[in-house]
Write a structure and sequence with these properties.
disordered C terminus; single chain; 488 residues
């Protein structure tokens, strides 16, 4: 049991380190590509990925999640799931190809037909590596998985930058999107050395199909809720406006995506193994939850207070109109840090039905906000998005934790400590910047602001809020008593 705890913590730290590299690579690519390409280039590709993203939700039909969540799974079952995934991926690729003229017509942009057709191939490559990635995750080989993901990201970014420098415009973004699943699936196959058997129709996988179907439907509803505004902006405001919004949205989403990917994969695997040991289950969940929040809160405050400098440094002067959009979207970093981990809780406990019901209520609330903000363009949509999510967060938490043994008070306590610490730190940082650095250039001013904020925040969190022992406990379990990827 102690070995399990150590593997979970070391795997989580390995993922966090990898996501630090991921964060650096993505920020670097944002800074470089935003200066090489125009807002319209990002808008054109964003219009298509908002559509193909819906299809990509079906690439594994939730079967990788189902395979990880099960206490045990046979090789015959994994093989059957692989062939189902591959079939689904092929059907989705053909569907996207067939609908490419429809996408071009909907937006009134003929160039999108070829873009959609090429992006469709990524759906098939994604499906080919789903179960191989699930095998690595079930074995808690998080360091290996993270290394592959970092290599794939670095390769795609290098290709995109090279093509942008050569004048390929938006096609550099298309190439980045397609090459990533090709590399990932190839690397997963080589690493696992697992070759699927012939499908066995007599294998009992009905329960996993039901679980996976619920997970997929849940993901579809959530995806629509969080991405419909990009379709609406593209349709009614054009490529330039949606490009400006998407770049601000992506910059805001990078911290959320990285943290959720780093901690979420480890947490879901570990919690699934502990679903019948509630005391340890609760302890592991709250520790992972607290860690995500502790890292998300300072990012939220920094983006909200210093949005102009962040945009100037990350994107460059031609993107200055994205600063207000970025600031208006900043609250969603904290909101997603609060609500996303609750999906680990419900999925690990097999409560996919409740998760789906929560999503079905969330979706119309957020879409209603988009529609109210749409007449005012990207800024109106950003404000409406954050407002809707802020109003929904408390009911969301209360509904998700009901009957799980995790109380609303547990969640409020986990949120309150870092939030209070960072509000104080943010106020002090803003005061320092206003006093001595108003005339500075954006980069040194941002460095000063974040340095003051993080120093004060960490001091308050570790000592005033009594979190020092929590992080010392994490470090204690990093001692190399056990190989990180020891086979189970």
């Amino acid at each position: 049991m102690n070995n399990f705890k150590q593997k979970a913590i070391r795997g989580g730290v390995a993922k966090m380190c990898a996501q630090g590299a991921n964060f650096s690579l993505r920020i670097g690519s944002v800074m470089i590509l935003s200066r090489l390409l125009e807002p319209k280039d990002f808008g054109l590709v964003g219009m298509v990925t908002a559509f193909t993203g819906i299809l990509s939700l079906f690439k594994d039909f939730g079967l990788s999640t189902a395979a990880i969540q099960r206490s045990s799974v046979t090789e015959e079952e994994i093989s059957s799931l692989f062939w189902i995934n591959l079939l689904i991926g092929g059907v989705l690729a053909l569907l996207a190809l067939a609908l490419s003229p429809v996408v071009a017509t909907f937006y009134g942009e003929p160039r999108l037909m070829k873009v959609t057709a090429i992006l469709a191939t990524g759906l098939l490559f994604n499906a080919a590596g789903v179960q191989h990635a699930a095998i690595l995750q079930r074995d808690m080989r998080f360091t290996t998985t993270a290394s592959i993901e970092i290599a794939a990201l670095a390769l795609s970014i290098a290709l995109g930058i090279a093509m942008a420098l050569s004048g390929y415009g938006y096609w550099s973004l298309v190439a980045m999107t397609v090459i990533t699943p090709v590399f990932l699936s190839t690397a997963f196959w080589i690493t696992t050395k697992w070759i699927p058997r012939r499908p066995n129709l007599k294998t009992e996988i009905r329960s996993m199909l039901q679980f996976g179907g619920a997970v997929t439907l849940n993901g579809l509803v959530v995806y629509i809720a969080y991405n419909l505004e990009k379709v609406l902006l593209g349709r009614f405001w054009g490529a330039d406006s949606v490009g400006m919004y998407i770049r601000a949205y992506q910059l805001v989403s990078i911290p959320t995506d990285n943290l959720n990917s780093a901690v979420g994969g480890v947490a879901f695997s570990a919690l699934s193994r502990l679903q019948h040991d509630f005391i340890r289950f609760k302890r592991y969940f709250l520790k992972g939850y607290s860690l995500v929040l502790a890292m998300s809160v300072p990012i939220t405050i920094t983006c909200a207070l210093f949005a102009d400098d962040v945009i100037a440094v990350a994107l460059g002067p031609k993107w200055k109109d994205a600063a207000l959009i970025f600031r208006l979207l900043a609250p969603t970093i904290l909101i997603f840090a609060i609500i996303n981990p609750l999906a680990w809780l419900m999925f690990a406990l097999g409560m996919v039905g409740r998760s789906l019901r929560v999503a079905l209520v969330l979706c119309p609330i957020v879409i209603g906000g988009y529609l109210l903000g749409l007449p005012y363009g990207p800024k109106g949509v950003a404000f409406a998005y954050s407002s809707a999510m802020t109003l929904w967060v408390v009911p969301h938490v209360a509904w998700c934790v009901r009957g799980t043994g995790i109380s609303f008070r547990d969640i409020a306590t986990a949120v309150g400590r870092p939030l209070l610490s960072c509000v104080v730190a943010g106020g002090l940082s803003l005061t320092v910047v206003a006093s001595i650095a108003v005339s500075w250039q954006p980069l040194p001013r941002l460095i000063l602001a974040t340095s003051v904020l993080l120093t004060v925040y960490l001091g308050l969190l570790l000592f005033a809020m009594g979190q020092k022992r929590f992080y010392l406990d994490l470090l204690q379990h990093l001692k190399p008593n056990l190989p990180v990827e020891q086979a189970q």
